[in-house]
Amino acid sequence: MDEFLKNILTIPAPSGYEEEFQNIFKEHIKKYVDRVETDNMGNIIAVREGPMGSPKIMLSAHCDEVGFLISNIDENGFLYVQEIGGIDTDLLPGRKVDIHTEKGKIAGIIGKKAIHLTRGEEKKKLEVSDIWIDIAANSKENAEKRVQIGDFVTYAKDVVFYENGFLASPSTDDRIGVWTLLETAKMLAEQLLNCSVYFVSSCQEELGARGAKTAADYIHPDVGIAIDVTHATDYPTADTKVTGRINLGNGPVITMGPNINSWVCHQLKALAKDIPVQYEVIARPTGTDANVMQLSSGGIKTALVSIPCRYMHTPYEMVSVDDARQTAQLLGQFVLHNF
Ligand SMILES: [Zn+2]
């Protein structure tokens, strides 16, 4: 298994707190590109320069993940949080989290009243205000020696690898996409290009694709492709009637719909004779970097290529590494064939 992939899955980077991850990404991608920039949002923009005046292609994958910020410490040393992004609160009780403090990482446990003591009313869907993090502090004073208001929190990192190339981890959405950017850059490194390629590890996607917006406005690309995860529908209880079936391991997913430029989509589909792909229809703006890219810089021809993912926004988002490899192939071939 790719040690680098394992490494990048375990770096904490909730939206707004991506710096540590971005520094590592920058170090890895710089050997495959001509220059690397960091903007004020914290996006990393790695550029393969094409000939002067040639088209610009922006490939964007977001590095941020969902998480929490400590917003209050009570008299007994329990920590209360606000969520960053779409947290599934029902999954929280009994879970281990990492609190990222100035002095390093400390473990916290999200507490829950024991099942023996839980009454009917208390079994309702949880709000984030119903949960607390326990660091065995016993007093506010004691807790404040270890954590501060504003420290960020992530699920405790744990990567599970399977022999068939599937893996499960928190933040697979969209670190697997960022890894795909790296694989694409690696693949194109030896090739002569007739366009410039901008590899963007974007910030704050989970809060409305805020990083991709500023990056697209800055780059002014002719074509923008977002690389993200999409919902697989190949597990028990998944409803395929309207969405169709999306399988882990059956290749990248090409999206069709109003968010997607028909020429870019057509060119991607044309590559499907050599690369296995799946299709998905999203009849509204997608919840990805593709949404804001299309609306940036006077309007950009935009597409979305996704890696199927089971259990999105849970601590074990499952994907197939082969799907990510095929996605890199698809993007690389798109760049080489069309420009
Ligand atoms: Zn995502």
Multimerization status: single chain
Query: How many β strands by DSSP?
Result: 17
Number of helices: 8
Low-confidence stretches are none
Tell me the fraction of residues in β-strands, as a range: 25-35%
The major beta sheet can be summarized as: 8 strands, mixed
**What is the CA–CA distance across the termini?**
33 Å
Helix content: 10-25%
CATH architectural label of the largest domain: 3-Layer(aba) Sandwich
Rounded Rg:
21 Å
CATH homologous superfamily of the largest domain?
A: Zn peptidases
**What are the bound molecules?**
zinc ion
Q: SSE order in H/E notation?
A: HHEEEEEEEEHEEEHEHEEHEHEEH
Q: Numbering strands along the chain, what is their spatial order in the largest sheet?
A: 1-2-12-3-13-16-14-15
Report what the structure shows.
- The chain has 339 residues and is of the alpha+beta class.
- The protein is built from eight helices and 17 strands.
- The chain has helices spanning 3-9, 19-29, 140-144, 172-188, 210-219, 262-270, 289-295, 321-338; strands spanning 35-38, 44-48, 56-62, 67-73, 79-84, 96-101, 104-110, 133-134, 152-155, 160-161, 166-169, 196-202, 223-231, 253-256, 278-281, 301-309, 317-320.
- The strands form three sheets. An eight-stranded mixed beta sheet has the order 1-2-12-3-13-16-14-15, with helices on both faces. The chain has a six-stranded antiparallel beta sheet with strand order 5-4-9-6-7-8.
- Strand 6 and strand 7 (104-110) form a beta hairpin.
- Helix 4 crosses helix 8 and helix 5 (210-219) runs parallel beside helix 7.
- Bound molecules: zinc ion.
- Zinc ion is lined by residues 62, 173-174, 205, 228-229.
- Zinc ion (ZN) binds next to helix 4 and strand 13.
